[in-house]
Each structure stands twice: as C-alpha cells, then as structure tokens.
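Issue: ligand-bound run for guanosine-5'-diphosphate - logging full I/O for the record.

Environment: standard queue, default settings, no custom constraints.

Inputs:
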Amino acid sequence: MGNYLAIVGRPNVGKSTLFNRLTKTREAIVEETSGVTRDRHYGYSNWNGFDFMVIDTGGYVVGSEDVFEEEIRKQVQLAIDESDVILFMVDVRDGVTPLDEDVSHMLRSSNKKIFLVSNKVDNMGYYSQSNDFYALGLGEVYSVSAMNGAGTGELLDVVVKEFSPEVDLSNDESIPKFTVVGRPNVGKSSLVNALLGDDRNIVTNVAGTTRDSVYTEYNRFGFKFKLVDTAGIRKKKNVSENIEFYSVMRSFRAIESSDVCILMIDAQTGMESQDMNILGVIERNNKGVVIVVNKWDLVDKGNNTHLEYAEAIRKKTAPFTDIPIIFTSVLNKQRIHKTLETIHEVFENRTQKISTSKLNDILLPIIQATPPPQASRERYIRIKYITQLKTHYPSFVFFCNLPNEVKDNYARFLENKLRKEFNFTGVPIKLFFREK
Ligand code: GDP
Ligand code: GDP
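Outputs:
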C-alpha cells in the first residue's frame, strides 16, 4: 500500500487545475522526454501530515481537446492500476454526460476507493446542482472549486483517511532491501545480472508488502540482501504509449519498498537532471542511497579523475553531499563486491540507534559553543535536549523554547555536526524542533 492519488475525468473538467492546487508548493518532478520538458504529471502533496503523491493521468490522454472515449478508458485503467485512491472529477456546469456514465461504470467495477468530485462549484449558486451526480451511483458527491479552493480542504480531510501516516514499507528485518534505479541504458540490468549469477544463489522469493514488489533474497559474495523487483511482475496489455509513465511509476514504487537505493549513472554523461529527480524521490522517501558511476572503463583517466568526478557530483547533490560514490565497470566486473559492501554499510548507518545520553553528551557542548542566533532582541533560543525518534530512518527531535525560530541554516549546522560525530553516510536524516 502506498499513498498514490489519481485524478480522472473528461477533458476540461478541471483535473490539472486541482493537480496544480494540490502540488503547487511542492517540489515538482519534471519528466524530460527527448529534450522536451513536458508538463509534470506527478507531484507530492501533504495534508494534515499525510504525504501522498498525486498523479494527473489526464496528462497522458493524447489529443485531449477532442473527447476520445478510448483514451479516457485507458486513462481510467491507468489510474485503477497505479493508484490507491481515485478522484473522479465531473463538471457541475455540464451535469451528467454519457462519458461520465461510462467512467463511473469502469470505476464501480474496480475495487479502488473512489471519491466523486463535482468541480466548478465556485459559489453556493451551483451547490444544489451537484446533487445530480448521485445518479452516477458512486456515493457521496464532494463539491469543490479547483479554481478558488472552496471545498478542497473538506475533500482532502476525508481522502487522507485512506492513506497510511508514514509511508515506509520496509519492515524491521535485518537484511537490507535494495533496488537499482537510474536512466535507461546506464547498466542497471547488467549489475543485477552480475549480482544474481545463477539461480542457485536465490534463498527465497518473498512477496512484498506492496502489491507491486517482490523481494528476492540472495546470499552472494558473503552478503545477504533482498533485491526489490517491481518490473515484469504485472504484464501490461497495451501500454506502449505509457511506457515511460510505467517505468517511472515502477521506480517510485521500488524506491518506496527499499531500504537502500543504488542510483546508477553513466560515467560518460555524469549526473543529469533526471538523475537529480530520482535522487530527490529517494531523499524525500528517506531512503539510503549509494551513487554508482558505471561504465568507468569508457572514461579516460588520470590520477585524480575519480576525485574530480566525485566532487562534480557532490556540487550537484549539495547540500546532501554525504553520499558514497563508487566507480564501477559492470562489464569488467569491477567493484561489484565494493558496491554490495557499501549497500550494507549504508543500511547499518540508516538503522543505527543512538542513545539519548550519548546524543546529548556529544551535541549539547557543541550547541553551547555555537548556540542558535538570537531570535530577536532579548529572545534567546535554548536547546535543552535531543533524542532520536523511533522511525525507520534517522530522525531527531531537538527540544527547545522557541522551536519556530530555529532557522534552516542552523538546522543544517546541526545536521552536519550529527553527520560528523556519527556515521550517516548515504542516509537522509530529519531534524525536528519541538517546544519544551
Ligand atoms: P482538465 O482538462 O480536466 O485538466 O481541465 P483544466 O484543469 O485544464 O481546466 C479546464 C478549464 O476549466 C480551465 O479553463 C480552467 O481554468 C477551468 N476550471 C478549472 N477548475 C475550475 C473551477 O473550479 N471553476 C471554474 N469556474 N473554472 C474552472
Ligand atoms: P539498463 O537499461 O540500465 O538496465 O542498462 P543495461 O544493463 O541493459 O546496459 C545497457 C548497455 O550498457 C548494454 O549494452 C551493456 O552491455 C552496457 N554496459 C553495462 N555496463 C557497462 C560497463 O560497465 N561498461 C560498458 N562499457 N558498458 C556497459
């Protein structure tokens, strides 16, 4: 189970308007296809503390100016396949149309949670007209105005009840689950094949906690690990036009189901914007990461090439620079062992628990020496104590008198100190400030 919300409906009912409203302030994931930056179709949203991803399937309908029933049908099927909750949007000013009836029919026969949203209810004048949509047989009708925001908060209040509060699908087992992500052709399958060798290395096949993931447990080169496999599990019928969409969705799901992700990049091209997007998803999901620069055999090397290369990558990933970078040639079987070793180290870093006394013994003197800047005249921020939360990933609470006054750059200073004193290489960490 993940927190995926899809918006479906006829063209022009207001799907993208709602999408933009939900994802507005969030970091966008821009997908680039053959150099053309397309509209974004996925974005993160948060409501009442629930993080979820919004999918605008409408963006995949080709020629959405004309109403092509077949296209809408595909869009709805996509939403049913790829999301957990579906918002079915209709236009209050048009009333029930035959196409709305077709879509309702498809949605009713799926077992997904559906919310019927009557849009363009900009004022109370339209409110009673929303009642027409009860005829679609999808239960409650939620009246909203995607344009001015009316009703959207009430809608989200009920929608987020369908989501899990903390999306972390990894359980507390001691064997790392990992996945290899990256752009096409960087060498992901080659690495996986090199790791897997023949079938005798398989320990077990374990169905994952998401319907899309299967973990296969291996014991290779002296390491136990579980590889998250999302591709090839569900055979798609006619998806050629949505191939990139599916591959992106799969990598999101694979990331969610993993403890540590290998972000593989091609040594010849370096870290590009797509790679940065994937890293953003990994960070956002608080997963461990190892950057693997593959096809190192194709690079002309001097003495310091790898250092310069790593430096160039860190410039791009800043402020998150505490990431292991490994230079491999999967072709020549170079540093495959090192890669596995590093995955395990990052896994250890991510699962470590630091006692409250140790944290305070080390951090409080540092804070005393370099306290937070004064909030304002006569107002001093005092950090009293620190404790690690029991989350799946490292997160720390700093109890203080004026939590809202702690500035980002001081938080970053604290994060750097934590990284310096303890080993969190390859692991995003979170800091919270709470009043005490
Ligand atoms: P989509 O094709 O379903 O993604 O629809 P769009 O989001 O592109 O919206 C279609 C048109 O409806 C645009 O001109 C929007 O400005 C307009 N629209 C969207 N939401 C509302 C709304 O709540 N009220 C009004 N009056 N217009 C809206
Ligand atoms: P994927 O699309 O990321 O899974 O990439 P593949 O594993 O299919 O590899 C794409 C191509 O790159 C194939 O032709 C591989 O043989 C080649 N390749 C993979 N790793 C290396 C490497 O380390 N060096 C070189 N020169 N080629 C590689």
